[in-house]
Amino acid sequence: MTRRLRALASLVKLREREKQAAKSGLIAMRRLESEATASVAYATETLALERQIASEGNATMEDFRAWFPAGLERLATAEEAERAAVVQTERAKNVALRAALECKATETLFRRREKERNDSHVRREQAELDELSLRARQFRGLRV
């Protein structure tokens, strides 16, 4: 294997590791996004439940008024975390896509260079065989 092909093979391995790291990052971001979505759902359900309890008269309206701003703040915080997670997930998708494309391009280049080298080797071997055949015919021609 030539130096150039060894370098390309190393680059293919590097790109493969980058692709795997990007994929792992995307998986982690999807998990965080899912957790953030669950937090929003929980905050929304809690808010609805507290409203229902207050409207049924099981708790005083004063208790609900005291709790309500904190409940809204938790919901707003959860929604902001969810928006940030969605943005980070999109970034991670783009990084993973770019890494996959770079890996594919590098693999394609490596295969192409390897094929060129093999084709060149086959052409040289064929030229040597042709040369030997020509010499053998010439040698037979001299002996006759």
Question: How are the SSEs ordered, and which strands pair?
Answer:
Blueprint: H1 3-55, H2 61-143
Tell me the distance between the termini: 45 Å
Tell me the series of helices and strands, N- to C-terminal: HH
The count of DSSP E runs of length 2 or more, i.e. the number of strands, is 0
Largest sheet, strands/sense/barrel:
none
Q: What would you report as the Rg, rounded to the nearest angstrom?
A: 34 Å
Helix content, binned percent:
over 70%
Count of folded domains: 1
Number of helices: 2
Q: Write down the overall geometry.
A: rod-shaped
Q: State the assembly state of the protein chains.
A: single chain
Q: Which consecutive residue ranges, at least 5 long each, have pLDDT under 50?
A: none
Q: What is the arithmetic mean of pLDDT?
A: 92
- By secondary-structure content and strand pairing, the structural class works out as mainly alpha
Strand content: under 5%
Condensed summary:
Helix content is 94%, strand content 0%. With 144 residues, the protein is mainly α.
Your description of this structure?
It contains two helices and no strands. The protein is an all-alpha fold. The protein has one domain. α1 runs antiparallel to α2. The mean pLDDT is 92.
